[in-house]
Amino acid sequence: MSHPITTDDSREIVRVDAIVKDFRPGLGLRAKRVLHEVSFAVREGEIYGFVGPNGAGKTTTLKILMGLIRPTSGNATILDCDVTETGFREHIGFLPENPYFYSFLTAEEILRFYARLSGVGGRDRDRRVQALIELVGLGDARRERLSTYSKGMLQRVGIAQALIHDPKVVFLDEPMSGLDPIGRKDIRDIILRLKSEGKTVFMNTHILNDVEMICDRVAIIVKGRIRHEGPIREFMNEEAMRSDIVLAHLAPEVAEQLGAKFSARVQTVGEQVEVQVMDGQVRDLLKSALEAGAEVLSLSPNRISLERIFLEAVEQGEQADGSSAAERGAPAC
Amino acid sequence: MLNSGSRIWPIATNTVREAVRHRLLYTLLFFAVTMIGFSVLIASLSYVEGERIIQDVGLASIRLFSVGIAIFVGIGLIHGEVERRTIYTILAKPVTRSEFLLGKFLGLLLTVWLQLCLMAIAFVAVSVLVGAGLDLGYVAAMLLVGVELMVIVAVATLFSSFTTPMLAAFFTLGIYALGHLSRDLYSLGQASDVPAVKQAATLLYRALPDLESFNLSTQAVHGVAISGAEVGWASLYGVAYSIALLILASFIFHRRDLE
Questions:
Q1: Which residues of B touch A104 (CB under 8 A)?
Q2: Cα(A199)–Cα(A204) distance, integer angstroms
């Protein structure tokens, strides 16, 4: 599948400028700041990963973008429209975290309902409903009530309703939540398909594996503050741009030769050969190994770097929090 | 650009489908029909004007249980959508909060009007069975029960748009009770010698719905002539009051964070 390339001068589809959000837990109680001047931009045609631990402010940011809550200060625009407006919403799709739907309806009925709200009418509506039910793999359950659906099936309904009106921009809050490995792969494929169709995808997640696999750019948010933002490759050092391959039925001397040829680290462990090679060399190395009669047992991209940056960001956030708490706790002189 | 109607109507029809699944609706409907039937028994204990007693009890039951349905189904109208987060995906579509609110209001109104029709059928059936006379006065009385229900649904929608079901029930019941007493409160206030009391009573009368203006039961049962103008003005008042409440509800709902 070929993906359109996003460049730095691509149009900004989503722009968030210094958003602050305070929540007041109750009358007379002190407001708690959950977003601290959050700023970022999502460019046309890219998959943007908004990453952070639970409680970091990801969903709050997304709720502001969807106009469900208002920022205390700052601005947010989607397709150059203020997020509090309504008209541009015919160009966006939204999947909330753990989506809930009217349980007395079937998948077909709920999708028709959302299609009508989105202005998709007549034959086009039926065509879109059927196509999306097939796309998300609910063909066998299309006429069953949603009350009988599993969490994973509801997540698929959520994806389908977000795409019912063929939006230009799609916002997904934890899209892989509640899905088994096959389901996660299906959703990843759908997201990559959206990108190949030129759509922009904004994705909230805390699953780094998904981010590495499909995102073009990433922002890491911790305790309401953006800690890092940039293209996914910027998060990767040389170590992270390597892949681990485990081979069997490969003679040690052939393995050594392959290591020398492709500048790969080779280690023989019993009957298996573990190879660590730069991403760009994976295809050629595998071709040579297979020609030498080897069997590929596994291939996995090295993901140490993003994970490390993420954990460092979380740690920094906690330290900053701890020091400010200590400052607050210090006696007044 | 989509027109509002094409967004409001799916929300309204969906609300009807949701509301008719409410067990409380069937419980109250059952009690209402039982009360209408039970009125025959009450009438049999009376030596005089049995038919009038049947129709009086029947109309009172219809009013009471209809309002009960409107309040107890209506109080969770918006709150339930926010609580279950079904509202998130709806407002992410090109639907304004006012359209959503209006769709929910219309859906509940259609539901309570539907159950009003069912109660009216039971009322007519019992009246025919006991040979009690029916005339246009009863049609007018039923029509204004429908208008009163519209006002009550609007009140429930208003409170449901910003508070919990329990508080919404408390406030709506309060407005219902005060709405039926607003004329008496006004009269009492006017009898006072203190100008501030008079002004307060006038203010209260203007702010509260005058629900007694929708009560034609006595005239219908006793065969007192009801003018078309009386029904027309009361209907117009009910529609205007409901619109004012919905505008207020929309204003509040627009400013609310849907957490």
A1: 17-18, 21
A2: 16
